[in-house]
Design brief:
2 copies of one chain form a homodimer. The first copy, chain A, contains 7 helices and 15 strands. By secondary structure, chain A is of the alpha+beta class. Chain A folds into 2 domains: 105 residues, no CATH class; 144 residues, Nucleoside Triphosphate Pyrophosphohydrolase (Alpha-Beta Complex), CATH 3.90.79.10. In chain A, the strands form 5 sheets. Chain A has a 4-stranded mixed beta sheet with strand order 2-1-7-6, covered by helices on one side. A 4-stranded mixed beta sheet of chain A has the order 10-8-12-11, sandwiched between helices. Chain A starts with 8 loop residues before the first strand and ends in a 19-residue tail after the last strand. The interface between A and B is large, with 127 and 126 residues. Strand 15 of chain A pairs antiparallel with strand 11 of chain B, so a sheet runs across the interface. Chains A, B: This is Nudix hydrolase. Chains A, B: Pfam families: NUDIX (PF00293), Nudix_hydro (PF18290). Chains A, B: Mediates the hydrolysis of some nucleoside diphosphate derivatives, possibly using both NADH and ADP-ribose as substrates. Chains A, B: Belongs to the Nudix hydrolase family.
Chain lengths: 335, 335
């Protein structure tokens, strides 16, 4: 990135009824109900996300907003696809823009003034919403009498840990290269963050493979941990996954891992750090209960919901449709 | 925020061994192993997070980095507390800074040049990492021969849905004010995002209370859904929660909700949109199985792990320690 420009800035605003009426009517009979709208202004990606080319011009200096037709992701009750531009800052200047599919606008980044406009938005009271490689989003909520209804920035990181046990009741463990002095020398389960848009089940298999070289098959999420104020004050969801080993040869990732091995489960549990850790104790009890069919974890099922048409994974455990209690635990044998 | 300044900018870099040695030795015998370090430079909050006042000066124009003692959050295998400053951009200029607890530095924002330095970082090849109200973080990964090991930005939003059934086998449902035309008129479960640092179990209770006015008690997460490219291209984790009603009077949130009511479960399931939705069908089967003890969801247990000392919630279902299969489903009666 050579310099920051408004082509890297996104502006979100709640539609302003006063302007909306006079402004929207000529274009479309959009309902007058107030609602959240947003527009990313960041060059090709957003431009191409606009699927209409109706040219329109925006006198900016006034706050002008395009409302939105209801659409988009609904399962969490927030409309995340509708778009608008609140143009602010300098008087009199004109912005070229194209209407988008949601009654919003996509501004041609070529036509935007650069650095000063970015600062102008901040001076006007816009706030950072979020940033990713290549752009930063600014937001402004117009109605003073109402709390902001803009959807929040991503709030969580998602981690996975792999519990891999072989036929000899040995668990796959690693020693990390960079760890708190307090846990130096501890043999622990392979763990890591899942990648962008990665599934929990494939992320767990990948992390185990990367750190230890061992191929595995995903079985179940047996528990998950929710903690707060972790990375950059964000929250953390950590999924403990049971995996079945498909190979046993260990090849460690020397960047992150100091050592890896197959360790007898009894020995693993006997480590002082583990013995003194209530959470870890519980996790191991759960794994052992699962191995002897006294516990049932959640397995992923690929389902598309017509609510948003998105292919997704629904994690749940077996449903016993025969009313047979002996059926009510997972029957898959893990050993 | 009146203007953007480096007091709102954070710079992260991987320690540069060449400089690290000559630079760090005078201060502490930090191991020479390369590792991830970071430092937020954003005024009072970060300044006060520094717990040492050793003054030091940085000739900037060179890339200077402080390495880190291992510490901090380990469960996902990334050290998120260690800090460093890569100072870059202008030649010759000096920055006042204080060492922090992790071998990094906190720069006095009062002493920083503002806007041009921000742009300077971008011109130097720094990239946006993430932004929150009040600051934007820039990162730079020095080693060209190695992939970046900086932890990623938060990747997920977390939503909750509340399945609330009363003694008359009526489920608590709402109609949303702003929804896709395709689901207009649909009676659905109350849903929403959890707030920053909020628990799933309290978020579900809050959302139901906000949307419908009904008080509930959290029982179990019975399933969760993982979907991708949802809000701002982030992923979404949606937890379906069973709640027990503690009151029945309905008072709707007129901002988000058009209507709410207690609807006979049979009627709810008979809605065409629900009948045609495989995922929703499955979720309702699970809820019904749970009600008749043929299914077991996950309930939260407050546990502190010595790995990071964080109080957190571990979600798991009952472990039958008596090897009694009839014990292996959750025994709590929900009706």
């Amino acid at each position: 990135m050579d310099s920051i420009s408004v082509s890297e800035v996104t502006v979100i605003g709640r539609t302003h009824l006063g302007f909306m009426h006079s402004f929207r009517q000529p274009f479309s009979g959009v309902p007058m109900s107030p609602k959240f709208c947003s527009s990313r202004v960041e060059g090709p990606r957003a431009i191409s996300s606009s699927d209409t080319n109706t040219k329109s011009q925006f006198a900016y200096g006034e706050r002008i907003a395009a409302t939105s037709s209801d659409s988009g992701y609904k399962i969490n009750g927030v409309n995340l696809k509708s778009r608008t531009l609140i143009s602010s800052v300098k008087e009199g200047l004109l912005l070229d823009a194209n209407d988008d599919a949601y009654g919003g606008v996509i501004v041609d980044p070529e036509k935007l003034p650069s650095l000063m406009m970015f600062c102008g938005f901040l001076q006007e009271g816009f706030e950072y919403h979020h940033a990713e490689k290549g752009y930063v989003m600014l937001t402004y909520w117009i109605p003073e009498e109402e709390p902001s209804m803009l959807p929040a920035n991503a709030s969580h990181q998602v981690g996975v840990g792999g519990f891999v046990l072989n036929q000899h009741k040995e668990v796959l463990v690693v020693q990390e290269k960079y760890c708190a002095p307090s846990i130096t020398g501890l043999w622990k389960l392979p763990t890591g963050f899942i990648n962008e848009s990665e599934e929990i089940f494939s992320g767990a298999v990948r992390e185990v493979k990367e750190e230890t070289g061992v191929d595995t098959e995903f079985l179940e999420v047996i528990a998950f941990r929710h903690a707060h104020n972790v990375a950059f004050e964000k929250s953390d969801l950590f999924f403990i996954c049971m995996l079945r080993p498909l190979s046993d040869k260990i090849i460690i990732d020397s960047l992150e891992i100091k050592a890896a091995k197959w360790m007898p489960l009894v020995e693993f549990v006997e480590q002082p750090m583990i013995r003194e850790d209530k959470m870890f104790q519980r996790v191991i009890e759960i794994c052992e209960a699962r191995l002897s069919h006294r516990y049932c974890g959640l397995s992923p099922h690929q389902l598309v919901s017509t609510f948003d048409g998105k292919p997704s994974s629904l994690y749940y455990n077996v449903v016993d449709d025969d009313h047979d209690p002996s059926n009510s635990n997972c029957n898959t044998d893990f050993l």
